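Dear H.,

Thanks for agreeing to be a second pair of eyes. The structure we're designing against is below in C-alpha cell form, covering all 262 positions.
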C-alpha cells in the first residue's frame, strides 16, 4: 500500500531514519511543524530536466524555467500525505520542500538515493542533480538501508568553473554564490552586476551543475506537471506568482533583467 502511494507520487523515493538528521536540523520557523516522535523522513525526488535543447535562448536557471516547485511539489506531497493518513490514521505525515528544517541534500543521501557533489548538491544516478527534493516527516518507522559511499569523484570541474569562486573542498560559501547574489535585495556591487551579466542568467546559476560529469547522459524525464508551463525567459511585467523567482518580489527580478539587457 505505502509503496503504491509513494510510487504514484515520485519516480524515486527512499526512507531516512529521523535520528540521522535530528542533530543537523536547519533553524527555521518550519521546524515547529515537525511531528512529535518523528521516526522517519520519506525523501522524494522530483526531476525537472527538460533536455539541453529545451533551454536554448533561456535567461534563467533550469530550476526556474518550470512552474514554481514550492507550489507544485507541495501540492503533490500534500496529496500523498492525505492518502498516507487515510491508510495509517494513527500516524502523522508532515510535508516539506525547500522551506524545510530538513537539510534535504543530507536526507536524500541518507535515504540511499545518491551522492553529494563537491558543489554541495545532491546527484542521483539516473537524473543527476536536476531534481527537487521534497519530504514527508512521519511518526511511522520503515526498513532503512545502510548508506556507505556518499562522495562524488572529485574531478574539481565545478570548482574551476564557478564564477564566484564559491566552491572549495569544504563545501560552498553561500554568501559568494551567484545564485544567492541574484536573490539579493537592494543595490549590488559592480563586481556582482558583472557576474550576472557574464553568466547570462537573471535568476539562479547552473554553472557547477552544467559542467559536472555526473550530469552527462542523465534522463530528461520531468514529472508530469513540469512538462507544461515552462518559460525560458524571466519576466517582470505581469503576474509572476507561479514562477520560482517571485518570492523576492518583482523589484529583484526586474533589477537583474536590467543588468542583463541594458
Ligand atoms: C539555503 C539554500 C541555498 C542557498 C545556500 C546554499 C548552501 N549550500 O548553503 C543558496 C541561495 C546559495 C542556494 C543556491 C542553490 N540552491 Co539551494 N537550498 C538552500 C536550502 C533552503 C538550505 C540549504 C542549507 O542551508 N543546508 C544546511 C547546510 C548546513 O547544509 P550544507 O550546506 O549541505 O552543509 C552540509 C555539508 O556541506 C556538510 N559540510 C559542511 N561543511 C563541510 C565541510 C567538510 C570538510 C565536509 C566533508 C562536509 C561539510 O555538513 C553540512 C551539514 O549536513 C536547501 C533546502 C533544504 N532545506 O535543505 C536548498 C537546496 C539545497 N537548493 C537547491 C537548489 C536547486 C539550488 C540551486 C541549484 C538553484 C540554482 N540553480 O540557482 C543553487 C545551487 C548552489 C549550490 N551550489 O549549492 C536544491 C538542491 C537539489 C539538489 N539536487 O541538490 C535544494 C535541496 C532545494 C530543494 N528542495 O530541491 N540554496
Ligand atoms: S564537477 Fe566533479 S567535483 Fe564537482 S560535483 Fe561534479 S564530479 Fe564532483
Ligand atoms: S551555483 Fe554558480 S556561483 Fe553558486 S557555487 Fe555553483 S557555479 Fe558557483
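And this is the sequence the design step returned. I haven't edited it by hand at all.
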Amino acid at each position: 500500500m505505502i509503496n503504491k502511494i509513494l510510487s504514484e507520487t515520485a519516480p524515486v523515493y527512499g526512507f531516512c531514519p529521523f535520528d540521522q538528521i535530528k542533530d543537523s536540523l536547519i533553524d527555521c520557523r518550519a521546524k515547529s511543524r515537525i511531528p512529535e516522535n518523528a521516526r522517519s523522513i520519506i525523501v522524494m525526488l522530483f526531476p525537472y530536466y527538460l533536455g539541453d535543447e529545451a533551454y536554448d535562448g533561456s535567461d534563467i536557471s533550469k530550476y526556474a524555467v518550470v512552474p514554481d516547485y514550492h507550489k507544485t511539489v507541495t501540492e503533490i506531497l500534500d496529496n500523498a500525505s492525505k492518502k498516507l493518513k487515510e491508510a495509517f490514521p494513527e500516524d502523522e505525515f508532515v510535508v516539506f520542500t525547500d522551506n524545510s528544517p530538513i537539510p534535504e541534500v543530507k536526507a536524500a543521501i541518507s535515504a540511499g538515493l545518491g551522492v553529494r557533489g563537491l558543489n554541495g548538491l545532491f546527484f542521483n544516478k539516473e537524473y543527476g542533480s536536476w531534481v527537487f527534493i521534497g519530504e514527508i516527516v512521519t511518526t511511522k518507522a520503515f526498513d532503512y538501508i545502510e548508506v556507505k559511499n556518499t562522495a562524488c569523484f572529485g574531478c574539481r570541474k565545478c570548482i574551476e568553473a564557478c564564477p564566484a569562486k564559491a566552491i572549495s573542498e569544504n563545501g560552498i560559501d553561500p554568501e559568494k554564490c551567484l545564485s544567492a547574489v541574484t536573490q539579493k535585495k537592494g543595490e549590488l556591487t559592480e563586481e556582482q552586476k558583472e557576474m550576472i551579466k557574464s553568466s547570462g542568467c537573471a535568476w539562479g546559476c547552473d554553472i557547477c551543475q552544467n559542467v559536472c560529469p555526473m550530469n552527462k547522459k542523465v534522463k530528461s524525464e520531468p514529472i508530469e506537471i513540469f512538462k507544461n508551463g515552462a518559460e525560458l525567459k524571466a519576466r517582470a511585467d505581469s503576474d509572476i506568482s507561479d514562477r520560482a523567482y517571485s518570492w523576492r518580489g518583482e523589484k529583484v527580478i526586474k533589477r537583474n533583467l536590467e543588468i542583463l539587457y541594458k
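Two observations from my side: The chain has nine helices and eight strands. The first strand starts at residue 12 and ends at 17.

Warmly,
E.
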